[in-house]
Every structure is written in C-alpha cells, then in structure tokens.
Design brief:
Elements: E1 2-4, E2 10-15, H1 29-48, E3 51-57, E4 61-62, E5 71-81, E6 85-95, E7 104-116, E8 127-129, H2 133-158
Parallel strand pairs: 1-8
Antiparallel strand pairs: 2-5, 3-7, 4-7, 5-6, 6-7
Length: 159
C-alpha cells in the first residue's frame, strides 16, 4: 500500500494569546514546539493510518519572533518513511491579518514519529508516493532543507 505526500498535509492555526507569551509579549518557545508536535503527529497519523508517537525532533532555531495577537500557521507533511517510522517537515509562520506585512517564517524542524498498532507495538507504515510535480518538489525541498540543517548543526559543533 502507498500513500501520497499530500494526503498527510496538515495545517493548524492559532492566535498567539497572553498565556502563550513571555514577558515581552512574544511566543514562548515551548508553546510553539507543542503546536509543532501536535501538527506533525496529525500529519503522521493521517499518513500511517495508525496512532503515532514522537521519536525525535531535529534541531530548532527560532528565526523570527511571533508577537501577541498574531496568527500562527503551522504546516506539516510526511516527506520520508522507514519501516515503522515517518519523517515529517513542520514549518511555522506568523501573520498579522491587521496589516499589509507579508507572512514571516519563524521556525522549521523535522520530526520522526513511529506508528503503533492497537497493542502499542511499532507497526509498518505505507510507502510514500509523490504523484505530482508539487509533491516531488515538496519532498525534494524537505530532504534538502533537512540535509542543510544537519550540516549547519554539525558545523556549529565543530567550532
């Protein structure tokens, strides 16, 4: 059995409210990571057709702040698979619907989830297919982005 990349695509939106902000009125990193984990898990479950658990999350850089009152958009999709695992790219951007400013990318990371059967044991996942040019481009971009992120982290460790 195979599942198309876009079948896993998931988008969540949140309004950044005071309970999820720091004393500067910006998003708490933990709140953003929570939203990323949830969105990634939904994408992984849609793909696997089973319950999933988070196995790992790659390095995270918060590249731009999210201000209180802004809309947070979290997008996730499966871009690679193992026997029982799925790799999910999760992107976060902020938008202020009250202004003409363009959306800003704020965070990206890569999660690995493991599919579980009804007894809680790892279970095989379907093969990933990329039937359209859009899906192939999304997968290639995710693979390249992950490779670049891992290279950047390794370079930092060498310094």
């Amino acid at each position: 059995m195979a599942v198309a990349l876009l079948d896993s695509y998931t988008e969540m939106t949140e309004i950044l409210l005071p309970n999820d902000t720091n004393n500067l009125g910006r998003a708490l990193g933990g709140a953003v990571l929570n939203w990323m984990d949830i969105c990634g898990a939904v994408a992984a479950m849609r793909f696997a057709g089973d319950q999933v658990v988070t196995a790992s999350m790659d390095h995270v850089d918060f590249i731009a702040p999210i201000e209180q009152g802004e809309v947070v958009v979290v997008e996730a999709y499966v871009f690679d698979t193992g026997r029982t695992s799925v790799d999910v790219k999760v992107d976060v951007r902020a938008e202020d619907p009250r202004s003409d400013r363009p959306d800003r990318d704020t965070t990206t990371s890569f999660f690995t989830f493991v599919a579980l059967d009804d007894e809680g044991r790892p279970t095989p996942v379907p093969d990933l297919t990329c039937d359209s040019d859009t899906e192939r481009e999304m997968r290639e971009r995710a693979v390249a982005d992950r490779r670049e992120q891992l290279r950047t982290v390794a370079d930092r460790l060498d310094e």
